[in-house]
Write a structure and sequence with these properties.
It contains 2 helices and 21 strands. By secondary structure, the protein is mostly beta strands. The N terminus is likely disordered.
Protein backbone atom coordinates (compact mmCIF):
# COMPACT_ATOMS: atom_id res chain seq x y z
CA UNK A 1 0.00 0.00 0.00
CA UNK A 2 2.86 2.41 0.88
CA UNK A 3 4.47 1.80 -2.51
CA UNK A 4 1.21 2.59 -4.25
CA UNK A 5 0.83 5.86 -2.32
CA UNK A 6 4.40 6.88 -3.17
CA UNK A 7 3.96 6.12 -6.86
CA UNK A 8 0.66 8.02 -6.86
CA UNK A 9 2.43 11.05 -5.38
CA UNK A 10 5.10 10.97 -8.12
CA UNK A 11 2.40 10.65 -10.79
CA UNK A 12 0.53 13.63 -9.35
CA UNK A 13 3.72 15.74 -9.46
CA UNK A 14 4.20 14.88 -13.13
CA UNK A 15 0.61 15.75 -13.92
CA UNK A 16 0.83 18.98 -11.94
CA UNK A 17 3.94 20.02 -13.89
CA UNK A 18 2.13 19.28 -17.13
CA UNK A 19 -0.87 21.25 -15.95
CA UNK A 20 1.25 24.39 -15.39
CA UNK A 21 2.28 24.27 -19.02
CA UNK A 22 -1.26 23.68 -20.26
CA UNK A 23 -2.63 26.25 -17.84
CA UNK A 24 -0.98 29.07 -19.79
CA UNK A 25 -3.44 28.45 -22.63
CA UNK A 26 -6.91 29.94 -22.58
CA UNK A 27 -9.35 27.59 -20.84
CA UNK A 28 -12.10 26.23 -23.14
CA UNK A 29 -15.75 26.93 -22.41
CA UNK A 30 -17.65 24.50 -20.19
CA UNK A 31 -20.03 22.20 -22.05
CA UNK A 32 -22.80 20.76 -19.88
CA UNK A 33 -24.56 17.59 -21.12
CA UNK A 34 -27.33 15.82 -19.17
CA UNK A 35 -28.19 12.18 -19.94
CA UNK A 36 -30.18 9.30 -18.50
CA UNK A 37 -33.44 7.39 -18.64
CA UNK A 38 -36.75 6.77 -16.87
CA UNK A 39 -38.45 3.38 -17.08
CA UNK A 40 -41.41 1.33 -15.86
CA UNK A 41 -41.30 -2.48 -15.74
CA UNK A 42 -43.89 -5.20 -15.22
CA UNK A 43 -43.40 -8.75 -13.91
CA UNK A 44 -45.82 -11.67 -13.87
CA UNK A 45 -44.40 -15.13 -13.28
CA UNK A 46 -44.45 -18.51 -11.58
CA UNK A 47 -41.28 -20.05 -10.14
CA UNK A 48 -38.98 -17.41 -11.54
CA UNK A 49 -37.16 -15.01 -9.25
CA UNK A 50 -35.72 -11.56 -9.10
CA UNK A 51 -31.92 -11.24 -9.10
CA UNK A 52 -30.76 -13.31 -6.12
CA UNK A 53 -28.18 -11.58 -3.88
CA UNK A 54 -28.12 -14.53 -1.48
CA UNK A 55 -27.06 -17.10 -4.07
CA UNK A 56 -24.29 -19.52 -3.11
CA UNK A 57 -22.09 -21.90 -5.07
CA UNK A 58 -25.03 -24.30 -5.45
CA UNK A 59 -28.60 -24.96 -4.18
CA UNK A 60 -29.87 -21.37 -4.09
CA UNK A 61 -32.92 -20.99 -6.27
CA UNK A 62 -34.20 -18.05 -4.25
CA UNK A 63 -37.94 -18.33 -4.97
CA UNK A 64 -39.09 -18.73 -1.37
CA UNK A 65 -38.64 -22.51 -1.36
CA UNK A 66 -39.53 -23.04 2.28
CA UNK A 67 -41.79 -25.92 3.37
CA UNK A 68 -44.03 -26.40 6.37
CA UNK A 69 -43.98 -29.36 8.76
CA UNK A 70 -46.15 -31.37 6.36
CA UNK A 71 -43.82 -30.73 3.41
CA UNK A 72 -46.11 -28.27 1.66
CA UNK A 73 -44.64 -25.09 0.10
CA UNK A 74 -44.98 -22.10 2.42
CA UNK A 75 -43.14 -19.57 0.30
CA UNK A 76 -43.54 -18.33 -3.26
CA UNK A 77 -43.02 -21.76 -4.85
CA UNK A 78 -45.71 -22.61 -7.45
CA UNK A 79 -47.54 -19.31 -6.79
CA UNK A 80 -48.36 -16.49 -9.21
CA UNK A 81 -46.26 -13.38 -8.57
CA UNK A 82 -46.95 -9.95 -10.08
CA UNK A 83 -45.60 -6.44 -9.48
CA UNK A 84 -44.25 -3.30 -11.17
CA UNK A 85 -41.00 -1.46 -10.59
CA UNK A 86 -39.19 1.63 -11.90
CA UNK A 87 -35.71 3.06 -12.22
CA UNK A 88 -34.44 6.47 -13.26
CA UNK A 89 -30.89 7.62 -13.89
CA UNK A 90 -29.82 11.22 -14.25
CA UNK A 91 -26.27 12.03 -15.22
CA UNK A 92 -24.25 15.09 -16.11
CA UNK A 93 -21.11 15.37 -18.21
CA UNK A 94 -19.14 18.56 -17.57
CA UNK A 95 -16.75 18.86 -20.53
CA UNK A 96 -13.85 21.31 -20.76
CA UNK A 97 -12.47 20.90 -24.26
CA UNK A 98 -11.19 17.61 -25.60
CA UNK A 99 -8.89 16.81 -22.67
CA UNK A 100 -10.91 17.09 -19.44
CA UNK A 101 -14.41 16.13 -18.29
CA UNK A 102 -16.24 15.21 -15.13
CA UNK A 103 -19.23 12.91 -14.75
CA UNK A 104 -21.83 12.59 -12.00
CA UNK A 105 -24.56 9.94 -12.26
CA UNK A 106 -27.51 9.53 -9.88
CA UNK A 107 -29.89 6.56 -9.64
CA UNK A 108 -33.44 6.29 -8.24
CA UNK A 109 -35.36 3.02 -7.77
CA UNK A 110 -38.74 1.70 -6.81
CA UNK A 111 -38.34 -1.97 -5.92
CA UNK A 112 -42.13 -2.29 -6.24
CA UNK A 113 -44.79 0.26 -7.11
CA UNK A 114 -46.43 0.66 -3.73
CA UNK A 115 -43.27 0.24 -1.65
CA UNK A 116 -43.80 -0.62 2.02
CA UNK A 117 -45.36 2.35 3.83
CA UNK A 118 -44.36 0.94 7.23
CA UNK A 119 -40.64 0.86 6.60
CA UNK A 120 -38.25 3.55 7.79
CA UNK A 121 -35.89 2.79 4.90
CA UNK A 122 -35.36 5.31 2.12
CA UNK A 123 -33.21 3.55 -0.48
CA UNK A 124 -34.96 1.80 -3.40
CA UNK A 125 -38.47 2.84 -2.30
CA UNK A 126 -39.23 5.68 -4.68
CA UNK A 127 -42.64 4.00 -5.09
CA UNK A 128 -43.69 4.82 -1.51
CA UNK A 129 -47.30 6.10 -1.34
CA UNK A 130 -47.31 9.91 -0.94
CA UNK A 131 -43.73 9.86 -2.27
CA UNK A 132 -41.18 12.21 -0.61
CA UNK A 133 -38.53 9.51 -0.17
CA UNK A 134 -34.78 10.16 -0.05
CA UNK A 135 -34.28 7.53 -2.75
CA UNK A 136 -31.55 9.26 -4.77
CA UNK A 137 -28.33 7.23 -4.91
CA UNK A 138 -24.88 8.22 -6.13
CA UNK A 139 -23.89 5.81 -8.89
CA UNK A 140 -20.77 7.37 -10.45
CA UNK A 141 -18.54 10.37 -9.75
CA UNK A 142 -15.32 10.54 -11.76
CA UNK A 143 -12.89 12.69 -13.73
CA UNK A 144 -11.63 11.86 -17.25
CA UNK A 145 -8.54 13.55 -18.63
CA UNK A 146 -5.75 13.09 -21.13
CA UNK A 147 -2.24 12.85 -19.67
CA UNK A 148 -0.15 15.80 -20.94
CA UNK A 149 3.49 15.83 -22.13
CA UNK A 150 3.52 12.15 -23.10
CA UNK A 151 3.84 11.23 -26.80
CA UNK A 152 1.54 8.19 -26.48
CA UNK A 153 -2.20 8.97 -26.08
CA UNK A 154 -3.14 8.10 -22.48
CA UNK A 155 -6.42 8.85 -20.74
CA UNK A 156 -7.15 8.42 -17.03
CA UNK A 157 -10.45 7.99 -15.19
CA UNK A 158 -10.30 8.69 -11.46
CA UNK A 159 -13.11 8.17 -8.93
CA UNK A 160 -16.33 6.19 -8.51
CA UNK A 161 -16.81 4.53 -11.87
CA UNK A 162 -18.21 1.56 -13.70
CA UNK A 163 -15.67 -1.28 -13.78
CA UNK A 164 -16.33 -3.89 -16.43
CA UNK A 165 -14.29 -6.80 -17.75
CA UNK A 166 -16.43 -8.67 -20.29
CA UNK A 167 -19.47 -7.59 -18.24
CA UNK A 168 -21.89 -10.32 -19.33
CA UNK A 169 -19.63 -13.16 -18.22
CA UNK A 170 -17.16 -11.81 -15.65
CA UNK A 171 -17.24 -8.39 -13.96
CA UNK A 172 -19.79 -5.58 -14.03
CA UNK A 173 -19.72 -3.34 -10.98
CA UNK A 174 -19.10 0.20 -9.73
CA UNK A 175 -16.35 1.25 -7.35
CA UNK A 176 -13.60 3.65 -6.44
CA UNK A 177 -10.61 3.26 -8.68
CA UNK A 178 -8.20 4.56 -11.28
CA UNK A 179 -8.37 3.21 -14.83
CA UNK A 180 -6.26 4.09 -17.84
CA UNK A 181 -6.55 3.78 -21.59
CA UNK A 182 -3.32 3.60 -23.62
CA UNK A 183 -3.44 3.71 -27.42
CA UNK A 184 -0.45 2.32 -29.33
CA UNK A 185 -0.90 3.20 -32.97
CA UNK A 186 -4.22 2.54 -34.64
CA UNK A 187 -4.63 -1.11 -33.68
CA UNK A 188 -3.43 -1.73 -30.11
CA UNK A 189 -5.22 -0.66 -26.91
CA UNK A 190 -4.06 -1.35 -23.33
CA UNK A 191 -6.22 -0.73 -20.25
CA UNK A 192 -4.75 -1.17 -16.75
CA UNK A 193 -6.75 -0.33 -13.63
CA UNK A 194 -6.64 -0.44 -9.83
CA UNK A 195 -9.67 -0.32 -7.53
CA UNK A 196 -10.37 -0.31 -3.79
CA UNK A 197 -13.44 -2.33 -2.70
CA UNK A 198 -12.61 -2.15 1.05
CA UNK A 199 -10.12 -0.16 3.13
CA UNK A 200 -10.97 -1.07 6.75
CA UNK A 201 -8.26 0.22 9.09
CA UNK A 202 -5.80 2.61 7.43
CA UNK A 203 -2.95 1.20 9.53
CA UNK A 204 -3.57 -2.54 9.10
CA UNK A 205 -3.28 -4.92 6.17
CA UNK A 206 -6.99 -5.74 6.22
CA UNK A 207 -7.99 -4.04 2.99
CA UNK A 208 -9.02 -5.30 -0.45
CA UNK A 209 -7.30 -4.30 -3.70
CA UNK A 210 -8.17 -5.13 -7.29
CA UNK A 211 -5.64 -5.05 -10.12
CA UNK A 212 -6.43 -5.55 -13.78
CA UNK A 213 -4.72 -5.39 -17.16
CA UNK A 214 -6.46 -5.79 -20.49
CA UNK A 215 -4.90 -5.61 -23.97
CA UNK A 216 -6.55 -5.91 -27.36
CA UNK A 217 -5.55 -5.61 -31.00
CA UNK A 218 -7.69 -4.86 -34.04
CA UNK A 219 -7.04 -7.30 -36.88
CA UNK A 220 -9.12 -6.27 -39.85
CA UNK A 221 -12.79 -6.63 -38.86
CA UNK A 222 -11.93 -8.63 -35.70
CA UNK A 223 -10.80 -7.50 -32.25
CA UNK A 224 -8.73 -10.03 -30.27
CA UNK A 225 -7.95 -9.45 -26.61
CA UNK A 226 -6.85 -10.89 -23.31
CA UNK A 227 -6.75 -9.86 -19.68
CA UNK A 228 -5.69 -10.72 -16.14
CA UNK A 229 -7.71 -9.68 -13.10
CA UNK A 230 -6.61 -10.09 -9.47
CA UNK A 231 -8.66 -9.67 -6.27
CA UNK A 232 -6.27 -9.50 -3.30
CA UNK A 233 -8.68 -9.71 -0.35
CA UNK A 234 -7.15 -9.39 3.12
CA UNK A 235 -10.72 -9.42 4.43
CA UNK A 236 -13.08 -11.99 2.91
CA UNK A 237 -16.07 -11.88 2.57
CA UNK A 238 -15.72 -8.17 1.83
CA UNK A 239 -17.41 -7.11 5.05
CA UNK A 240 -15.63 -5.58 8.05
CA UNK A 241 -14.97 -8.13 10.80
CA UNK A 242 -14.36 -11.28 8.74
CA UNK A 243 -11.10 -13.08 9.33
CA UNK A 244 -10.55 -14.92 6.05
CA UNK A 245 -7.94 -14.01 3.43
CA UNK A 246 -8.40 -14.62 -0.28
CA UNK A 247 -6.28 -14.14 -3.37
CA UNK A 248 -7.95 -15.05 -6.66
CA UNK A 249 -7.01 -14.51 -10.30
CA UNK A 250 -9.12 -14.48 -13.46
CA UNK A 251 -7.53 -14.88 -16.89
CA UNK A 252 -9.46 -14.44 -20.11
CA UNK A 253 -9.31 -14.43 -23.89
CA UNK A 254 -11.95 -12.91 -26.14
CA UNK A 255 -12.77 -12.13 -29.76
CA UNK A 256 -15.43 -9.86 -31.26
CA UNK A 257 -16.10 -8.88 -34.84
CA UNK A 258 -17.09 -10.03 -38.28
CA UNK A 259 -15.86 -13.10 -40.15
CA UNK A 260 -17.19 -13.03 -43.67
CA UNK A 261 -20.99 -12.73 -43.52
CA UNK A 262 -21.30 -13.61 -39.80
CA UNK A 263 -20.74 -11.73 -36.54
CA UNK A 264 -18.72 -13.61 -33.93
CA UNK A 265 -18.29 -13.28 -30.14
CA UNK A 266 -16.10 -15.58 -28.07
CA UNK A 267 -14.99 -15.73 -24.43
CA UNK A 268 -12.84 -18.12 -22.42
CA UNK A 269 -12.24 -17.48 -18.71
CA UNK A 270 -10.23 -19.37 -16.09
CA UNK A 271 -10.28 -18.60 -12.36
CA UNK A 272 -7.70 -19.77 -9.83
CA UNK A 273 -6.92 -18.93 -6.20
CA UNK A 274 -7.60 -19.77 -2.59
CA UNK A 275 -9.48 -18.65 0.50
CA UNK A 276 -8.02 -19.37 3.94
CA UNK A 277 -8.85 -18.55 7.53
CA UNK A 278 -6.30 -16.46 9.40
CA UNK A 279 -4.32 -18.39 11.98
CA UNK A 280 -4.90 -21.67 10.11
CA UNK A 281 -8.10 -22.20 12.09
CA UNK A 282 -9.58 -24.12 9.16
CA UNK A 283 -8.19 -25.75 6.03
CA UNK A 284 -7.93 -23.48 3.02
CA UNK A 285 -10.37 -23.71 0.12
CA UNK A 286 -8.91 -23.78 -3.39
CA UNK A 287 -10.74 -22.22 -6.33
CA UNK A 288 -10.30 -23.41 -9.89
CA UNK A 289 -13.03 -23.12 -12.49
CA UNK A 290 -13.59 -22.11 -16.08
CA UNK A 291 -16.22 -20.96 -18.56
CA UNK A 292 -16.50 -20.69 -22.31
CA UNK A 293 -19.06 -18.93 -24.48
CA UNK A 294 -19.42 -18.54 -28.23
CA UNK A 295 -22.02 -16.80 -30.40
CA UNK A 296 -22.48 -16.55 -34.15
CA UNK A 297 -25.00 -14.20 -35.82
CA UNK A 298 -25.92 -14.28 -39.50
CA UNK A 299 -27.80 -11.12 -40.56
CA UNK A 300 -29.80 -11.31 -43.79
CA UNK A 301 -31.45 -7.95 -44.51
CA UNK A 302 -34.32 -7.73 -41.95
CA UNK A 303 -33.66 -11.24 -40.57
CA UNK A 304 -30.98 -12.24 -38.05
CA UNK A 305 -30.31 -15.91 -37.25
CA UNK A 306 -28.00 -16.86 -34.40
CA UNK A 307 -26.52 -19.75 -32.46
CA UNK A 308 -25.03 -19.43 -28.98
CA UNK A 309 -23.48 -22.00 -26.67
CA UNK A 310 -21.80 -21.75 -23.27
CA UNK A 311 -20.43 -23.97 -20.50
CA UNK A 312 -19.60 -23.07 -16.91
CA UNK A 313 -17.83 -25.64 -14.75
CA UNK A 314 -19.71 -26.82 -11.66
CA UNK A 315 -18.72 -27.62 -8.10
CA UNK A 316 -18.45 -31.06 -6.48
CA UNK A 317 -20.79 -31.05 -3.47
CA UNK A 318 -18.58 -33.64 -1.73
CA UNK A 319 -15.68 -31.15 -1.78
CA UNK A 320 -17.54 -27.81 -1.77
CA UNK A 321 -19.91 -26.23 0.72
CA UNK A 322 -22.74 -24.01 -0.49
CA UNK A 323 -20.73 -20.90 0.50
CA UNK A 324 -17.22 -22.10 -0.36
CA UNK A 325 -15.86 -20.63 2.90
CA UNK A 326 -13.19 -22.31 5.07
CA UNK A 327 -14.56 -24.34 7.98
CA UNK A 328 -17.98 -24.90 6.37
CA UNK A 329 -19.39 -28.36 5.74
CA UNK A 330 -20.03 -30.08 2.42
CA UNK A 331 -23.01 -32.33 1.68
CA UNK A 332 -21.14 -35.23 3.32
CA UNK A 333 -20.21 -33.27 6.45
CA UNK A 334 -16.47 -32.80 5.77
CA UNK A 335 -14.83 -29.38 5.52
CA UNK A 336 -15.05 -27.59 2.20
CA UNK A 337 -11.73 -27.92 0.34
CA UNK A 338 -12.20 -27.01 -3.33
CA UNK A 339 -14.56 -24.96 -5.49
CA UNK A 340 -14.51 -26.30 -9.03
CA UNK A 341 -17.42 -24.11 -10.10
CA UNK A 342 -16.76 -21.15 -12.33
CA UNK A 343 -17.11 -18.05 -10.16
CA UNK A 344 -17.17 -14.31 -10.68
CA UNK A 345 -15.69 -11.59 -8.42
CA UNK A 346 -17.51 -10.23 -5.36
CA UNK A 347 -19.93 -7.44 -6.21
CA UNK A 348 -20.12 -8.29 -9.90
CA UNK A 349 -23.57 -7.98 -11.46
CA UNK A 350 -22.61 -9.95 -14.55
CA UNK A 351 -25.44 -12.39 -13.79
CA UNK A 352 -27.86 -9.54 -14.50
CA UNK A 353 -25.95 -8.49 -17.62
CA UNK A 354 -25.79 -12.07 -18.97
CA UNK A 355 -29.16 -11.75 -20.73
CA UNK A 356 -29.19 -15.11 -22.51
CA UNK A 357 -32.86 -16.03 -22.04
CA UNK A 358 -36.14 -14.80 -20.57
CA UNK A 359 -36.94 -17.42 -17.90
CA UNK A 360 -33.83 -19.20 -16.66
CA UNK A 361 -31.15 -16.58 -17.29
CA UNK A 362 -31.52 -12.85 -16.89
CA UNK A 363 -33.03 -10.85 -19.74
CA UNK A 364 -32.21 -7.42 -21.08
CA UNK A 365 -35.93 -6.76 -21.41
CA UNK A 366 -36.16 -5.90 -17.69
CA UNK A 367 -32.56 -4.80 -17.05
CA UNK A 368 -31.62 -8.25 -15.74
CA UNK A 369 -34.01 -8.07 -12.78
CA UNK A 370 -35.18 -11.68 -13.05
CA UNK A 371 -33.85 -15.15 -13.80
CA UNK A 372 -33.52 -18.45 -11.91
CA UNK A 373 -29.82 -18.61 -12.78
CA UNK A 374 -29.17 -14.92 -12.11
CA UNK A 375 -26.72 -15.10 -9.21
CA UNK A 376 -25.43 -11.89 -7.61
CA UNK A 377 -23.33 -11.89 -4.44
CA UNK A 378 -22.12 -8.48 -3.27
CA UNK A 379 -19.57 -9.67 -0.67
CA UNK A 380 -18.36 -13.06 -1.94
CA UNK A 381 -17.53 -14.85 -5.15
CA UNK A 382 -20.59 -16.41 -6.80
CA UNK A 383 -21.75 -18.28 -9.89
CA UNK A 384 -22.82 -15.25 -11.93
CA UNK A 385 -24.97 -16.27 -14.87
CA UNK A 386 -22.93 -19.25 -16.01
CA UNK A 387 -21.34 -21.19 -13.13
CA UNK A 388 -22.75 -24.71 -12.77
CA UNK A 389 -24.70 -24.73 -16.03
CA UNK A 390 -24.39 -25.06 -19.78
CA UNK A 391 -26.77 -24.25 -22.63
CA UNK A 392 -27.25 -24.22 -26.36
CA UNK A 393 -29.48 -21.56 -27.93
CA UNK A 394 -30.93 -21.05 -31.40
CA UNK A 395 -32.70 -17.78 -32.16
CA UNK A 396 -34.10 -15.70 -35.00
CA UNK A 397 -35.06 -12.03 -35.04
CA UNK A 398 -37.09 -10.33 -37.75
CA UNK A 399 -37.72 -6.60 -38.20
CA UNK A 400 -41.31 -6.70 -39.39
CA UNK A 401 -41.47 -2.92 -39.85
CA UNK A 402 -38.92 -0.24 -38.87
CA UNK A 403 -40.71 0.25 -35.54
CA UNK A 404 -41.25 -3.42 -34.62
CA UNK A 405 -38.93 -6.39 -34.20
CA UNK A 406 -39.82 -9.91 -33.01
CA UNK A 407 -37.29 -12.46 -31.75
CA UNK A 408 -37.92 -16.14 -31.06
CA UNK A 409 -35.40 -18.26 -29.19
CA UNK A 410 -35.13 -21.84 -27.97
CA UNK A 411 -32.64 -23.13 -25.41
CA UNK A 412 -31.65 -26.42 -23.85
CA UNK A 413 -30.06 -25.92 -20.41
CA UNK A 414 -28.04 -28.49 -18.47
CA UNK A 415 -26.48 -28.82 -15.02
CA UNK A 416 -22.71 -29.24 -14.47
CA UNK A 417 -22.52 -29.63 -10.67
CA UNK A 418 -21.20 -33.01 -9.51
CA UNK A 419 -22.76 -35.17 -6.76
CA UNK A 420 -25.68 -32.77 -6.55
CA UNK A 421 -27.47 -30.09 -8.53
CA UNK A 422 -26.66 -26.41 -8.94
CA UNK A 423 -30.24 -25.32 -8.20
CA UNK A 424 -32.27 -28.33 -7.11
CA UNK A 425 -32.04 -29.90 -3.64
CA UNK A 426 -33.64 -33.31 -4.31
CA UNK A 427 -32.27 -36.27 -2.36
CA UNK A 428 -31.92 -39.94 -3.31
CA UNK A 429 -35.00 -41.77 -2.09
CA UNK A 430 -36.60 -38.47 -1.06
CA UNK A 431 -35.36 -38.90 2.51
CA UNK A 432 -33.22 -36.80 4.83
CA UNK A 433 -30.51 -39.47 4.97
CA UNK A 434 -30.29 -39.73 1.19
CA UNK A 435 -27.40 -38.21 -0.74
CA UNK A 436 -28.09 -35.25 -3.02
CA UNK A 437 -29.44 -36.37 -6.39
CA UNK A 438 -27.20 -35.64 -9.38
CA UNK A 439 -29.28 -34.78 -12.45
CA UNK A 440 -28.18 -33.20 -15.72
CA UNK A 441 -31.44 -31.80 -17.13
CA UNK A 442 -32.43 -28.25 -16.11
CA UNK A 443 -34.88 -27.94 -18.95
CA UNK A 444 -35.95 -26.73 -22.37
CA UNK A 445 -36.96 -23.06 -22.76
CA UNK A 446 -38.99 -21.20 -25.40
CA UNK A 447 -39.09 -17.36 -25.54
CA UNK A 448 -40.67 -14.59 -27.61
CA UNK A 449 -39.40 -10.99 -27.40
CA UNK A 450 -41.24 -8.03 -28.99
CA UNK A 451 -39.53 -4.63 -29.38
CA UNK A 452 -41.64 -1.59 -30.30
CA UNK A 453 -40.08 1.82 -31.00
CA UNK A 454 -42.96 4.18 -30.18
CA UNK A 455 -40.93 7.35 -30.66
CA UNK A 456 -37.24 7.98 -31.25
CA UNK A 457 -36.53 8.09 -27.49
CA UNK A 458 -39.43 5.97 -26.22
CA UNK A 459 -39.29 2.18 -26.50
CA UNK A 460 -41.59 -0.59 -25.26
CA UNK A 461 -40.46 -4.20 -25.01
CA UNK A 462 -42.54 -7.17 -23.88
CA UNK A 463 -41.33 -10.76 -23.61
CA UNK A 464 -42.68 -14.09 -22.49
CA UNK A 465 -41.14 -17.48 -21.95
CA UNK A 466 -41.66 -20.92 -20.44
CA UNK A 467 -39.13 -23.43 -19.11
CA UNK A 468 -40.14 -27.09 -19.28
CA UNK A 469 -38.33 -28.02 -16.09
CA UNK A 470 -36.06 -31.04 -15.81
CA UNK A 471 -35.19 -33.13 -12.75
CA UNK A 472 -32.20 -30.90 -11.89
CA UNK A 473 -34.70 -28.36 -10.52
CA UNK A 474 -36.50 -30.79 -8.18
CA UNK A 475 -36.59 -29.84 -4.49
CA UNK A 476 -36.47 -31.83 -1.27
CA UNK A 477 -39.32 -30.83 1.05
CA UNK A 478 -37.42 -31.74 4.22
CA UNK A 479 -40.08 -34.29 5.16
CA UNK A 480 -39.42 -37.97 4.46
CA UNK A 481 -43.09 -38.76 3.90
CA UNK A 482 -43.34 -36.05 1.23
CA UNK A 483 -39.92 -36.50 -0.31
CA UNK A 484 -38.91 -34.66 -3.46
CA UNK A 485 -41.16 -32.19 -5.25
CA UNK A 486 -41.15 -31.33 -8.95
CA UNK A 487 -42.12 -27.63 -9.23
CA UNK A 488 -44.50 -26.30 -11.83
CA UNK A 489 -42.86 -25.29 -15.09
CA UNK A 490 -41.44 -21.78 -14.58
CA UNK A 491 -42.80 -19.05 -16.86
CA UNK A 492 -42.70 -15.26 -17.06
CA UNK A 493 -44.23 -12.33 -18.93
CA UNK A 494 -42.23 -9.14 -18.41
CA UNK A 495 -42.17 -5.73 -20.06
CA UNK A 496 -40.27 -2.47 -20.05
CA UNK A 497 -41.17 1.08 -21.13
CA UNK A 498 -38.10 3.34 -21.32
CA UNK A 499 -37.69 7.01 -22.15
CA UNK A 500 -34.01 7.73 -22.73
CA UNK A 501 -32.37 11.12 -23.14
Amino acid sequence: MKKFVALSFVAILILAFGATVYGQEKAPALEFKPFGFIDAQTFWYVNVTGANPAAGIYNAWGIGTSFDAAGKPSGALDKNTAYLESRARLGFNMIMGKDVSGTILFEMDSAHWGDDTQTTAQRNIMGYWAADRAAVEIKNVYIDFGVPLIPVPITLRVGLQGLGYRPAVLMATDGMGISAGIKLGDNVFIAPFWAKPLENSNSNADDVDVYGLRAQVALGSMTIGGYALNFNMNTYPIVSGFTNDANVWWYGLYADGKLGPVNVNFDFIYDNGKVKARGNASPEVKYEGWAIRGAVDYPIEKLNIGLTGAYGSGADTKKTSATGLPGTATSTGVNSSKVGSYVIPPGSESGAAFGESVVFHSTGVNRGDSGIGNSINYTQMGRGGLGGAWYAKLYAGYKVIPEYKATFQALYIGDTTKNGNTFGTARVGGVTTGALKDDSDIGFELDLINEIQIYKNLKYTIAGGILFAGKALDLFTGVNATGNLSPKNPWIITSNLTYSF
